[in-house]
Every structure is written in C-alpha cells, then in structure tokens.
Amino acid sequence: MALTPAAFEWVCTLVRRESAIVLERGKEYLVESRLVPLARAAGAADVSAYVDGVRLRPDRKAQTAIVEALTTNETSWYRDGAPFQAFATSVVPALKQARASTRSLRIWSAACSTGQEPYSLAISLADSVLAEGWRVEIVATDLSTEVLEKAKAGRYSQLEVNRGLPAPLLVRHFTRVGTQWQVNDDIRRLVRFSQLNLTSPYTLLGQFDVVFLRNVLIYFDLQTKRDILTRVRRVLKPGGYLFLGGAETTLGVDDNWDREPVGRVSVHRPKNGGQ
Fold first, then answer.
1. Which of 46, 142, 209, 254 is catalytic?
2. Torsion sign across C-alpha atoms 155, 159, 163, 169
3. What is the pTM of this model?
4. Which domains does the chain have, with CATH numbers?
C-alpha cells in the first residue's frame, strides 16, 4: 500500500518540528523510500503501518530514527569540485595573509553528514598551512547522531572512497583496514564532530574564518534561511568566508552579505567586513 496522506502529513509535521526541514507534497516517494528499512526492521506490513504505529504509540527513539532517516543527505569527497578548488587556491592564501599574526584557522563544516566534507577540507589544509606550522581546527556538525558516529570513525567502504576521492590522496591519507579505508590519525585529529540543530543557537561554537554551509538551506523555508544566515554571520570572523551550495544564495534572503566570484563559484562575505 502506498504511503497514506495521513501518514505523510504526520511525518512532515514531525520532521519540521524537530529539524525545521520542510517536506512538501510530491515528496511522498522520498519519505516512503527512506522509511522502508525502518518499517522492515520493526516488522510492519508497510511504511504507513509503521508510521501509524509510532504515531499512536509515541516512541521517542522511533521518532528520532524517522527524523534522521529523512535529514541524512547524500555526500561525497570534494563535492562539486569547484568550491574546494576555490578554497585551496584563493581563500586559504588570502586568509594566510589576513591571519598572519595568529597563524591559526578555524573552519565550520555545517551539516557534515558522514564526514567527507570536513575530511576533504582537512586534507586540503594538510599540505599547506598545517605543513607551515599553523594551527587548524575544523568543527563539523550535523543533526543526525547516526551519521556523526560514522564520521567520527572515519572509516569508509571502497564504494564511498570512489566517490570523488583522487587515488593519490587515498593512498597518502588513508589506511586499508579489511575491506574498508580508515582516515589516518593526523587528518582525523584536525576535525571535531558534534551534534547541532542549525535552528538552535550557535553560542558554543566560537568564531570561524570559513563556514561551509552547502546544500542544506534548500530544505528550509524563507524565514528559517534568514535566521540561519543571521546566526552564521555572527560566528564568522571579520573578513571571513561563507560557502553555499550551487543552488543556494543569499540574494532575496539576507541582504547583509556580499557575493564575490572566486574561480567558478561565488563566495559570500558579510557586508562591511562583518561584526
């Protein structure tokens, strides 16, 4: 049986309440496909029966599993390529000049999923500022505790490393463990993972030179996007950089940002230097 309208609406309400992510009509197929494994594990006849069971007999653990299943996004190494090239060839050199007195960089990978983005950033920095004695910290956050556990482990299948990771970097920065690949300790030490809902305060995060907030704003309504961009602006150091996804923009959302072309992408910077 296809997902019933009542089950779909209940899931949409739950996900929006817990994560602020909006699931619109037409996404029934996505909800059903993401929840099939949970329904099977619970022994339910189908996804609608599973959802009805959770709805009628509230189970916090089951509700969390539903939200995490629907907020976990696809990711890959050096996703889309151009942003990471702009980061390595333009943004990092500019920051080296601007931060020469402190010789330290802090980067936030928001909505980091299973860790490919922050580890990609760490690898990019390993042979540049890190090799020159700079201090580097990458803070990686996500709503889902399940994907964060995988990210912390830093262990990936052959299929996962084949998605965007150049072979020379695989050989240099990973160690083969059985049928999987483990991120080497020197790279893992650069990244600190923690759970965070992007709609919550960022007061404990500190200040950052660069924020990667890619391919996540597209899931929120306009007001939530504005709130998130306002919070990001407050934790970005003066002269800092914000990277958004290719389909995301501050235009018409938050006018307190300037867009600057860097290579084949645009980076976003707080107007008047920020703060």
1. 142
2. positive
3. 0.83
4. 5-71 (1.10.155.10), 82-273 (3.40.50.150)
Tokens of 247: 């389909």
Told to judge if 34 belongs to the known catalytic residues of this protein, a careful annotator would answer: yes
Q: One of 34, 106, 233, 269 is an active-site residue; which one?
A: 34
| DSSP string over 111-154 | S-TTTHHHHHHHHHHHTTTTTTT-EEEEEEEES-HHHHHHHHHT
Cβ 89 vs Cβ 122: under 8 Å: no
C-beta separation of 129 from 92 below 8 A: yes
Can you give the pLDDT of all 275 residues of the chain as single tens digits? 578 888 989 998 988 888 878 888 878 888 888 888 888 898 888 899 998 889 888 788 889 888 888 876 668 898 888 999 999 999 999 999 999 999 999 999 999 999 999 999 999 999 789 989 999 999 999 988 889 999 999 999 998 999 899 999 999 999 999 999 999 999 999 999 999 999 898 988 999 999 999 989 988 899 999 999 999 999 999 999 999 998 899 999 999 999 999 988 999 999 976 55
- d(C-alpha 104, C-alpha 96), whole Å: 9
